Please model this.
Amino acid sequence: MAEEMVSQDSTPRRVRFYGVTDLATPWQVGRAVEIVERFDPEKPPTLAADLIELYNVQQFIEAGFFPSGYTEAQRALARERARVMRSVIARFFAAIDNTNVQAFIAAIDYDYHADLLELLGRGRAFKRCDAEGMLSALKATGVDLGVMLANKKIVQAYDTQLRDLLMSDVCNAEHVIRKNWHRGYGDETYLPNSLTPGDARELLQGYVDSADANLNYIGLIETAAVSSQTGIDAKLKLRAKRRKDQMTEEFFLRNAGFESGCEVILSESQVEPVKVEIIGAVASFTYSRVWLDQTLDNASILNNFQHLFEFADRRHVLLTLPAYPADLGVFERFLTTTGRADYHIGIAFRTLDASSLLQTSFYYHYLASKEVSLEAVIAWFFEEYLAAEFGALNFSFTPSGSDSLYLQRARHLFAEMESVAMQFALYVENGELDRDLLAITSDPVRYKELPSLLGGKYVYATEGEEVSGILYALFSDQSGLTYINDALNAQSLAELITQNEVSYRDFLDYQKRSIDRLIALGILEDTGVRVQFTSREQLSVLMSLFKTQAASYYRLSNRGRVEVDSMGEKGWVARRASLLTAAEGSYYNYFLNKLEFHNGPELRNKYLHGSQANKDGEAAHFRTYIIALRLLIALVIKMNEDFRLAAEKDESFD
Model:
């Protein structure tokens, strides 16, 4: 990207300040200071577009963006001129009224529309101009309704007029959808107070039936919570579901798509337990029959889920199954339509979800061919293993009947999963499991609140700006620190400096500000030869916080725990105790209920309440049963880890 982008007519593209972290910001510094240097307070610009550009230039200066060769005297002069710019801009927009608004704001480019409204609001132009004159002028210069609804002052000033504009076209329902359900837009969209819930429902219903409807927005209506305040009811949700199904079917009739998925193969001759091959978007897992035949005891079967199928990582025994933000691609993070109450899933989650479901189904059938019941293995864990290994008595699990339909098995498994979760919670809280107490306990299971036998089991990043900045700078592919030149670049800064010998001098001038900050915080050090991490243990913890949103404190080395304690003193991390991490608890909520998300299958609620759909017959119920098995086995892995870590901790004090 050139420092000064030039259009076909050789007119420099106007300066636009996108924020201090935007990758385009450093590249515009040269053009911004050039405008500052040319600025003459005695002959200020008289065109609105020029004044808006000054407003953007002023933000560069106030944020401290200067060329690396600028002296302190030059910086001081630039700051003084930015102060004068602010006064010039304010005077211009304070002079706009009904008599001149059409002329003053004509021909403003799209990139400046939001800034135009911001400056009009600051200059109180909305109070001096009537709705007809102002809205007509804004329409003439191309400001669309969405940009207006992103400005609180204009919405407040012209409430009823903007309500009428909204109601004039059913496609404007997208603004209502963005405000109420689209993640990332709620705080940036303002709806007129005069827009009633009845108005909203009328718009939404018209939109669902519209030929111009966007499939993603129809999906947001389908998964929205029923609310009289937003105009959503069960009938509208069903209407949206059917419309989405129709649009999806029509899309694939017109588009061939591409092959993706996974397959499981059982090899008679393979020595290695598993081989994984990925060709394009298809993952192939080949398992050794010899290995599986030799691991038919109960403990090995459960270990195969943890290690062979990799339901949990080896370092921290955190589940690999949840949707972690770090696994989202750039497109999925910034360009997909995601509901505010949605579980944000991407290709990585869908791929792992499909493969783990296929692995569970494959192993279930394989074990059945050996006359081994997977549910009986789970019963062994609770009724025999916990008592023999950890002295945890009175746990029970009742397998479903071998002749039961999968509908019945799924219902039974959801109920038994809640039972063992409650048994574990009572054991942790009381140091023993009292079956009589269990019998009178009927509270629903809150998976995020299941307790742990260990205090402060998990390490979490706090919400402080400092640690958020550290994680972003080190691991984000959008941090601006990933590329130095064609020979020195990587997916993240952490990868760049661990896989290459990068000296401080190698970094570009604008990158050195962030590197200096990381050095000052004790994350990096400059040896004179290269920039490197000060502590491998600290890096490992930070990487886990970024990738899986938590780290297991008792899985760390003594030195690693010291690093966590130090980070805690700085306010970067906090420790909390629970069986599941917050991300793991969200994974259970996504599949089982509506406590946290609106786009999940809600399997526990539907099956236990008898409201599941039956149109797909036993095949659909078998799939639900396999999902329930997967969730239950993952819970077994987490409980076993909790018991084992607690036992190891007790032994260390003996």
In short: Strands lie at 261-267, 274-279, 282-288, 458-461, 524-526, 531-533, 551-552, 573-576. Residues 617-653 form the longest helix (37 residues).
